[in-house]
Amino acid sequence: MRHILAFLLLAGLPAPAFADVGAAVDRRILPAYEGFATAAEALAAEAGTTCDPEALRPPFNAAWDAWMQASHLHLGPSEEKGRALAILFWPDPKGLGGRAQRALLTGDPAALEPEAFAGQSVAARGLAGLERLLYPSSPPEADACPLIRATTQDLARLAQELVAGWEGPEGFAQNLLTAGEPGNTRYLAPGEAVQALFTQLVAGIEFQADQRLGRPLGTKDRPRPERAEARASERSLRNLTLALKALREMAVTLDGTAARTASAFDRAIEAAEALEDPTFAGVASAEERPKIEELQRLIRQIRRTALDEMPPTLGVTAGFNSQDGD
Amino acid sequence: MKSIRLLGALFACSSLTAPALAAEPAAVVKTYADLAEAVYSDSLSTARSLREAVGALTASPSAETLAAARAAWLAARVPYQQSEAWRFGNPIVDDWEGKVNAWPLDEGLIDYVDASYGESEENPLYTLNVIAHPEFSIAGTEIDAAEITPALIGETLHEADGIEANVASGYHAVEFLLWGQDLNGVEAGSGDRPWTDYAQGEACTNGNCDRRAAYLTAATDLLISDLEYIVAQWAEDGEARKAVTEDPQAGLTAMLTGMGSLSYGEQAGERMKLGLMLHDPEEEHDCFSDNTHNSHYYDGLGIRNVYLGSYARVDGSVLSGPSLSELVAAADPAVDAQLKAELDASVEKLAALKARADSGEMAYDQMLAPGNAEGEALIMGAVDALVTQTASIERAMNVLGLTKVEFEGSDSLDNPNAVFQ
Description:
A: 326 residues, mainly alpha, A middle domain of Talin 1, 2 domains, 0% strand, B: mainly alpha, two-stranded antiparallel ribbon, globular, disordered C terminus
């Protein structure tokens, strides 16, 4: 198959037309960003009326839910100006976010003005930053309200920029949809757009296994429950499950024939939903840990299945992704 | 493969500037292995020079011997950074790399730190300070550190308690011992360790100068033995050489995987863009010495070296041979021409960043400051060029019919039952 593909690419022919980039863009990517923009706007609006954490938690959780539909897309506008990093900065092993936020809480309020705030460290902003303010482990050193408002407004702005960056005649979606056409310097062949999306899928699956589960799992001798994502809001498992579901939809939209991959997703999603451990605290328990390890194995199995099953249909395999480094 | 070569030949004949005779994969991967042996041998020889300078510093501490040791460290980084293009793609290199170039580090593990260094929620050894403590415990185990040896550093301290930030060995540990913490934030200036940190007797500053000298010596010795290991891996009959030459297709895959992974995920992402988005000078790669601009530049050069099959050695000679570029050109001249142009562009952008830092007008950490538009443009210019070339590296893989190597070899992946054992 590789040789046939190379032949097709060399000959300048379109890749096999089994990959539905148009559906992936129209039915998955654009609605995901629009949904996040709506949720972020609602969160900012609510924060405009109250800073009561209890009142803000529902729209905050709705916004994080919405972001999980799009968080695996590391291409185009989300990669520009560090937007994806600013929306969700995790992991943060050195605790940079908390430190930067404390400086903002007690510092010059001018740093909270929209333009200045947009230039602050990505670690201090976004959903993880807001989580520290809405689920504080200790009372804040100063009135958190201005920082809460600045963070929600910043999120709404970022969400709007993502929608604007993707849509319209100059939007990034056009790059994917016109791959290989004259004037498209980003994707020089239709297969390149397919490869870009398939790469996002594979990298997204890797992230769930290696980071969302791998960090708290640590090693058997040294489990790291404190390293789970979003422990304060108890969203660790929820984020993982939502991300798996979004990735599954992405896979079957891109390649409607990927039945084995879909089944592999279903097995992992089922295992995730059966887990009654919202923060993966069970990594440190002899009884619970094997269930979380099994979930990680099932997720790695999805990746293996997708890499085995989808490339022949799509005509491409995975390219380089942002997690290729350390 | 035959069909590709045949088609490549057709293309070559039809293009106006026909490339030279197509290189053979076996010859291309031999060049790759030869270059690796050379770049690691240069890393070793410059590390040995560093060891001599460290010996002079500890034997007769002075401002001059400290400056000479720092100069030797900077010189040692030139070949080593170029070798990073061999890291991803070769499991033998990637598994070893953490011993010599792990970063970022919680330097309080090794020596004294400023009060502003603070606390860590994740690392109980954040301020262990081995130099000041001949005895301590790690995760409940008592450690006798009366004598600071390469074995203590490599086997007990490095990544102690399973925490990656506990970097006890390698270039950056030595760098910290030569420069000290950079306390200038996003202002100009590197670490400013006084030479008297190595003075013996009453002149000693910050205490334990004998143990500090012992640590520096042992860490440099360990760096040398680690580099000796990797040179042997690329020598004739070395395992790393065999892995790429016995199966040339696997070798070509390793070459392009190394180029793409370093360009995008590691260099453009982890090392450059992330630091900029965090505005955090500790995200500088060579943060104690303020050498980050050089470190980035030589990384970029190394990526191009792999593609062009050419490396300028530290003695000034140039080693070159049949190249990946020639092989890609034979398959698709347009892909080769674009990739070559993009590699030149990224080296140029990195050179611009390096020139600005070398000018003394704007250090790399200053470029990271919030609101520094010029610094941001310099860094993002290089980031964008590295991201752009990654797409062409993928194209080169496609025209050669190669798939990015995956060596995520965890137990649970390869052996589904392992997790239950």
